[in-house]
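User: Can you write out an input/output pair for a complex, sequences first and structure second?

Assistant: Here is one pair. Inputs:
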Amino acid sequence: MPGKVKTRRKRLGREGLNRERVLSEALVLADREGPEAITMRGLADHLGVSPMALYNHVSSKKDLVQGLAEHLVNHVDFSCDDSHWQERIRSCFRRLRDACLAHPSAIRLMETVEVAPVSVFRPMEITLAALDKAGIGSADAVKGYCLLIGFTMGQVSYEIRGPFRSFDAGEALRRRRIAGAGFSHIERSVALDGWDFTSSFEFGLSVILAGLQEFALKK
Amino acid sequence: MPGKVKTRRKRLGREGLNRERVLSEALVLADREGPEAITMRGLADHLGVSPMALYNHVSSKKDLVQGLAEHLVNHVDFSCDDSHWQERIRSCFRRLRDACLAHPSAIRLMETVEVAPVSVFRPMEITLAALDKAGIGSADAVKGYCLLIGFTMGQVSYEIRGPFRSFDAGEALRRRRIAGAGFSHIERSVALDGWDFTSSFEFGLSVILAGLQEFALKK
DNA sequence: ACCTGAACACCGTTCAAGT
DNA sequence: ACCTGAACACCGTTCAAGT
């Protein structure tokens, strides 16, 4: 190969490294090469810098990954025109889900880290305000938020690494070990199509909002 | 220290190693020392065996962790006397949650692995059967299952590593950076008590079941 | 069939040194 | 203040060898 020379150094623009650059390039690298590509050495190499240079901007790999989480969630646009509380919530968690699904490798990375980012406070505030409007008191509103965030992130996590990777996963499923093992309802439902992660998410959101609605009324 | 001798070898009973033993001892070790203690070398040491001995019973670390996941879920008792569909579902996911919370380190480990265990088919079958009883058709029943499993595992994951580690986490929260940052609803709700993970889970389950009920009726 | 020890190609991080 | 190279104490896994 003629022009194939290893030129990894001198990738940085004129203005050197900083935390922002480290984080956004980590996201680029994760998106391109997968979560396992994010090592201190690999990221340093990608940035054309020695591994130890990173430690001037992140205090550890854990800090890097937490920073990545905040970086991602901080850039989500949660603005919404519709002021109806149900639509406000729907929009909020749709946006959150979209942002996560746009960077599955980064999400995988975050799942290895101990504490969720402070960024979760933004969707939390939005949800509490919306539920307040719906007439659901503070104590229950917090539980309502936990329901919504748990569902959304649980679904995302499932979508990213669960056994149902794509729409026609039914084939793969049937081939495994469920045949004749007493899973009749599963076998029946695996045949049908019209199922995908997004419509499943929308269904879940609607069911939750209907449940919250009813809860608000009967209070 | 007088009687302090390193005796790690010869821990195995008379009947050597096997997959079951490797998996159950991995669970013991994870419970006792945390997820980061589960390395091929560390587990081998715990079993009094050379690292390479493990490869006769698991094909890789990934296989070990997936085996651990199946081992855990397979031992959950999903039996339930109550035949009402709502109670059937409630019991199923309560049991699943309890099993996960009993082994947080194992759950953390599983989150690092690519594919969820086949074991998820058991709660899935139970849920589909219950929703069938409720009059919810196959296509929607699968979505209902996704809602329930996503919520349950999302909550568990959040509980294990989220920012609200214990009940009085409000203190820790207030000390961080939310003060005066426009999070008025959060600040208000952080003051109240009577919130804990279990009651939050029960609230979520009830809201979902109410939503599914309503969905079944209006169909 | 099952286990061992040495080796390989990696990790994250510390430390002493450079500018 | 920011970066470097060498080194340390780890990883998972391959391989050749033992019983």
